[in-house]
Amino acid sequence: MTTAFVYDPFERNHSFPGHPECLERMQSSWALLEADGILDSLTRLPNAPAPLEPILAVHDAAYVEQLQEICHGIEDPASPSNRSQNWDQTALWLDPDTYVLRDSWEASLRAVGGLLQLTDEVMSGAAANGFAMVRPPGHHARPHYAKGFCLFGNVAAAARHAQQKHGAERVLIVDFDVHHGNGTEEMFYDDPSVLFISIHQFPHYPFSGSIDEVGSGPGEGFNVNLPFPDAVGDPGYLAALRQLVDPLAREFRPDAIFLSAGFDGHWMDPLSGHRLSVNGYAALVEELLDLAEALCGGRLICTLEGGYDLNALPHCILSTLRVLSRNPAGVSDPFGAVEGNPRAADKVISAVKRRLGIR
Ligand SMILES: [Zn+2]
After folding, report:
1. Looking at 59, 140, 179, 274, which residue is catalytic?
2. Distance (Å, rounded) from C-alpha 274 to C-alpha 262?
3. Alpha carbon of 126 to ligand 1 centroid (Å)
């Protein structure tokens, strides 16, 4: 059994110069993966734009229509490589952080499409696990609106797809992006068939994700937030996985585990202060892979969310792929850990346990 990988270069058409969520993220990552040679050991999946059905399972139809109209109403198809272009005429802003270009419609359909391809491959048993290197990211997109660089909820659409197409009854989504996965949370807030666990910096963008957001109605207890103060580093995230994600997952008994893999908590990342290392991220992925192997036949389906340092991100992705494929080369971390003691995370973990009634 192999590790599947999907990357669709169409994403290059969705990029705004100077914006942190830009094509250079994938350019630098792809260059490292190619130079390393790891791609030869993975199952490369083809990609196509996602059909609308799985997107409409988590988004309002009016928003989906509006997004298509807005993108296609932009006359000048921007060429991201042409830096002399008049960008005021080629981009529109859906919120202060979220741009769209004419090709953003297709790029966002292809981001969902890539993760759906991967989901099919893993859920059908053709691959053991996998990683979708897609952009734009998805976990901030709300059912009715774009937010925080995200247009469609990629992981939410894929989780629903795993349920509706592959008969998964219970799906666990772990989100270790440094920002709260507000969109994913909102899409499953009253749904006990999807356990959503987000580990994030707090207070920090998008300023949601408190301990008290535990789900509603039948979904109460199936939404778990770990809002950590800054600088908790690798030990804080590992403790969250071992002390909370692990027991909650064993009780929930998922049929598949999805990972919203944002690497923007790395200590070199410009958008956060959580100070994780590449080694730390690899350890988190390994814990989740072990958990998936213990609980659901190893079905760990990972998708890229954030990660904005153009040097750190490629090594985070390469190391994730090495862990998923049990590659003996191990972690690739030329940057090491940041100096100084990490801040303790135990208080938050204890508070979450108390809120959820876990001993
Ligand atoms: Zn993020």
Report:
1. 140
2. 12
3. 30
Ligand 1 centre to CA of 226 (Å) is 15
How many independent structural domains does the chain possess? 1
User: Domain with 168 in it: what CATH number?
Assistant: 3.40.800.20
| Sheet order of strands, 3-6 included | 43-44, 3-6, 129-132, 300-304, 256-261, 171-175, 194-201, 223-228
Domain range for 221 is: 3-356
Whether 140 sits among the annotated catalytic residues: the reply is yes
Q: What percent of the chain has pLDDT over 90?
A: 94
Residues 311-336: tens digit of each pLDDT: 999 999 999 999 999 999 999 999 99
3-class secondary structure, 45: coil
pLDDT digits (tens, 9 = 90+) for 103-125: 999 999 999 999 999 999 999 99
Confidence of residue 359 (pLDDT cuts 50, 70, 90): confident
Q: How far is the CA of 21 from the centre of ligand 1 (A)?
A: 10
